[in-house]
Design brief:
Blueprint: H1 2-11, H2 14-48, E1 59-62, E2 71-73, H3 75-108, H4 118-134
Antiparallel strand pairs: 1-2
Helix pairs in contact: 2-3
Transmembrane segments: 16-37, 78-96
GO molecular function: mechanosensitive monoatomic ion channel activity
Function: Channel that opens in response to stretch forces in the membrane lipid bilayer. May participate in the regulation of osmotic pressure changes within the cell.
Length: 137
């Protein structure tokens, strides 16, 4: 029963739950970016360079023979993946930049020194009086 209770404590910790949510949102964000690149960005780029569909760009290394499929180097899909990565990396960079700026603003916010209690003020006065008495010739 010890291992199960340890696992339960681990699984419901805030960090693990936050990480799981981040992974799920990240996967969904990746799909959105892939769709954005494949369906919105790449078609106009392909049109500008002569109606090329990047997903179809490939070099056939070996033609299909009978039941054996062709061996193809699909560099168009690779280009599309690189653009996906750049967009995702830029979005993460911007998110981290905003978070860092918020942290800096939070750190810069001045904090007022704590107000001493009445007891601390009285002790300070007593200390000052004792110093004054000890410094008399």
């Amino acid at each position: 029963m010890g291992v199960l209770s340890e696992f339960k404590a681990f699984a419901v910790k805030g960090n693990v739950v936050d990480m799981a949510v981040g992974i799920i949102i990240g996967a969904a964000f990746g799909k959105i970016v892939s769709s954005f690149v494949g369906d919105v960005v790449m078609p106009p780029i392909g049109l500008l360079i002569g109606g090329v569909d990047f997903a179809d760009l490939a070099i056939t290394l070996k033609a299909a023979e009978g039941n054996t499929p062709a061996v193809v180097l699909a560099y168009g899909k690779f280009i599309q993946s690189i653009i996906d990565f750049i967009i995702i990396a830029f979005a993460i960079f911007m998110g981290v930049k905003v978070i860092n700026r918020l942290k800096r603003e939070e750190a810069v916010a001045p904090t007022l020194p704590p107000v001493p209690s009445k007891e601390e003020e009285l002790l300070g006065e007593i200390r000052d009086l004792l110093k004054a008495q000890n410094n008399k010739p």
